[in-house]
Amino acid sequence: MTVKTDIRYPTDQCIKCTICVEHCPVVKVTEKFLGPKQVGPDFQRFRSEGDEPHDASVEYCTGCRICDIVCPSGVNISELNTRAKIALRAARGIPVRDRLLSHAYMFGDLASFAAPAANAFLKLRPFRWMSDKILHLEKDVKYPSYSKQPFEKWIRESYHFESDKKVAYFFGCFTNNNDPSLGRAVVRVLERNGYQAVFPKQDCCGLPLLGNGDVRGARKLAKKNLEGLLRAADDGLDIIYSSTSCGMMIRDDYETYLDLPEAAALFDRMKEVSEFLWGLYEAGELDTDFEPVDLSIPYHVPCHLRSLGIGLPALDLLGLIPELHVEELETYCCGLAGTYGFKSEKYDISLAIGRELERELGRFDGPYALSDCEACRMQIENLSSKKGLHPIFILQRAYGLDAAEEEPDTASEQR
Amino acid sequence: MELKTEVLVIGGGVTGAGVARDLVMRGIDTILVEKGDLAAGATGRCHGLLHSGGRYVIKDQESAVECIKENVILKRIASRTIEDTGGLFVSLPGDDESYADRFLAACDAAGIQTQVLSLSQALRLEPNLSREAKTVVKVPDGAVDPFALTIDNARDAARRGCRILRHTKLVGIDVEKGRVTGAEVHDRVTDERHHIRTKRIINATGAWAGHVAGLAGANVPLTLSKGSLLIFNRRINNTVINRLRPPGDGDIIVPNEPTSIIGTTSITVSDPENFTVTKKEVDLMMKEAGLVLPPSAEARVIRAYAGIRPLVAAQDADSGRDISRSFSILDHGKQDGVRGFYSIVGGKLTTYRLMAEKMVDVVAEEMGVHIPCSTASEPLFGSEDGEHYRLEDRFTSIETVEEGEEQEGKVEEIVCECELVTKDEVLKVINEMKTSNLNDIRQRTRVGMGSCQGGFCTYRLLGILHELDMVPQYEANEILTSFMEERWRGIRPVLWGDQLREEQLVEGIYLGIFALDKIQPLGKKASKSKK
């Protein structure tokens, strides 16, 4: 047992008020998780950084970070718990299954190449059985389907817009492999507003690796991404992202967990896509020539959007569209939490956390539900018959830009 | 009720419990009487430092040699209660550098193993150590849990046939024709009086020794010296930190469970029961801690407390520091003409076993018992495997993870989240001790001793007691209030920063939400609290 030298130390600042436990989505549905306070500031008195946490219950933390948001004492609870998870994995090793899940981007390259086969394979009962029995991957969950044409390929072949006004776009591996239509929607909306998207050399942001305790792997990816992103920032470009989790990882976590202080230079440049567009609107530069969209759509706020602390810019933007009715759902975590919901021992917990969202979605008749996070969209499709959409698709429709676009890619394969 | 025993031991501190164990191990029938709970006096209000002897090595070689010998013995026989942290003696700018050389030479002479560390070695061991440190010497200090040590001695003695009467106060000693013939005791729980027939009484009551001796018409010349201590919310050091200079105030910091404890002061007082920790003492200790471990100036302090050292009065000593820390055995037959009455006073937690051995040697000889002492080789009940305590072992009480394909963690219900005390542990104590006294439970589990100082676990404890039907009618509020009052008494001297915020929250809950200060007692209070 050794002592951390940093004396402004969360365990001293925590006054045990238990608000974080009250808000924790996991504690609400299972006793397997002792709660953010217990495994964080409380356990911290009995261990130090780098010590094996001796606590397996931290595995059940979904990493939603609601605890950080609600803590009145400013304790970095999720950081403590993430570090404990990392230490646990360092001590006990990372299961093959988790490596597979978190390397979906590598797997993704392959799968896109052979998309039809991959999608069929993921649906095959033998694969389901194998993955369930051997890898403890949940067989009843819908896996993301792979697109035949990755977003990167589309950029190379079909994106030719040029303009003096430029923004860098970090689209992330999910958009690239599983949901390229989101990337296309983003660049079309930017184009409509006179902005050319440039694409810094990029790979997966690394969050799935970090979430599964593979710091070294995450750091490798981060260093690759930083090269291009820092150059874009140096050129004075804003860097937009359409995946809240990627944005959080790059903006906040590179510096916090991966020992990459240079990432701090990106903080003011990183803008969530709706945040960027709303900024244009406030500056009087957004094209507001919207066609009416006669829809009533539920909107689920991703936890990682909350933890970004940028408000709900998508909701503000959609509010500009005539006849559109968007209702913000009174929901917290959807329960899927990246790779969490795909693990068979956590599937029931993931579903139980999602019950609230399921109930709320049930109040709406329409075919769509909105969320800015791909994992939330997958969970929406797991829990309901609705299709999960990124808010930018609605904007694309209001601009009349989706005529060229076939149906948006589905977040997950249909059963 | 009439009881009978060969030897009656008064006082359930570590000395009394150690004496009782030694007596029964030599086949002598023994009763131990304690007016409150075990370890409630000086034992439970000390640093929890297992001395290497380094502190006394220059001024008092004899004490130092006693310490190092006992240190080695206790690490073996009471391993469960000791964390083998090691200790450092650290000199800072302005300290007399020649002291270090004399210190090293004296340690060699006393048989205390030393190792001089470079600053970088020291910092690896102790990241919070001052970068100004000049000489750093490693010694075999350790941290010992005084509650556990006392309880293990008592439990071991009880298993060998010793009868232990807790919450039982000695009210009179019968002396006939210059010889002890018995004692009168008062059971404070049942309000009954018992007479104990015995020919020998050992007075091991520490600060109360003078009062107890008075009951037999004997005299123990004591100086009472108050030592105050502060508890940090977490460990700010890994090893015991001492200053490499002549012993002074606030110059020892001991890692203790998940906390660090700094002490002490040395102020002569007259009353063993009524004393407070003053602001001056708090300021002094915070200043001293900041010198040797600079980050401690910012660290949260959760409690202050004080203990009374019973020092055997020496001639013309004006401050407690100069009185020998070595112990005295008084045979009042020779001294005051009360045969069969003995007092054992002074000494230190580290030397309790040796004190007990010497005391029992005297009594055994008087009784004609020739069985030699075996406490130095016979491990205490629970320490047979020689495994030392490790803080991280506390996790294992919380959850057991099945090493299987599914990491099925079975998680225990936690009553005290700050100190990781499970409901099972609490129930075990309640059932074993047949006690509903919150302080008894606290001493044995550490419930209520963490960051929130009882704020979030006291009512849970009360709930458990209520479930077990152990809360007497009309007493729930009194139990709650008196326990919280005692917790708050220790927080009052350290109300700043994070602990002040904590206290405001807890007061908001108990006084604001529960309105505990406005509750009128419902019925008649039980008559037992009559003085």
Task: Outline the secondary-structure elements.
The complex is a heterodimer of chains A (415) and B (531).
Chain A: H1 10-13, H2 19-23, H3 25-29, H4 36-44, H5 66-70, H6 77-92, H7 96-102, H8 104-113, H9 115-123, H10 125-133, H11 151-158, E1 166-170, H12 172-177, H13 180-192, E2 196-198, H14 207-211, H15 215-234, E3 239-241, H16 244-257, E4 270-272, H17 273-282, E5 296-299, H18 303-308, H19 313-318, E6 325-328, H20 344-361, E7 368-370, H21 374-383, E8 387-389, H22 391-398
Parallel strand pairs in A: 1-2, 1-3, 3-4, 5-6, 7-8
Helix pairs in contact in A: 4-6, 8-9, 13-22
Chain B: E1 2-4, E2 7-10, H1 14-25, E3 30-33, E4 49-50, H2 61-77, E5 82-83, E6 87-90, H3 98-110, E7 115-117, H4 119-125, E8 136-139, E9 142-144, H5 146-159, E10 163-165, E11 168-176, E12 179-187, E13 192-197, E14 200-203, H6 209-215, E15 222-232, E16 240-243, E17 252-256, E18 259-263, E19 267-269, H7 279-292, E20 301-312, E21 327-331, H8 332-335, E22 341-346, H9 352-367, H10 394-398, E23 399-401, E24 409-411, E25 414-416, E26 421-422, H11 423-433, H12 438-445, H13 458-467, H14 476-491, H15 497-513
Parallel strand pairs in B: 1-13, 2-3, 2-14, 3-10, 6-16, 14-22
Antiparallel strand pairs in B: 4-9, 5-9, 6-8, 7-8, 11-12, 12-13, 15-18, 15-19, 15-20, 16-17, 17-18, 21-22, 23-24, 25-26
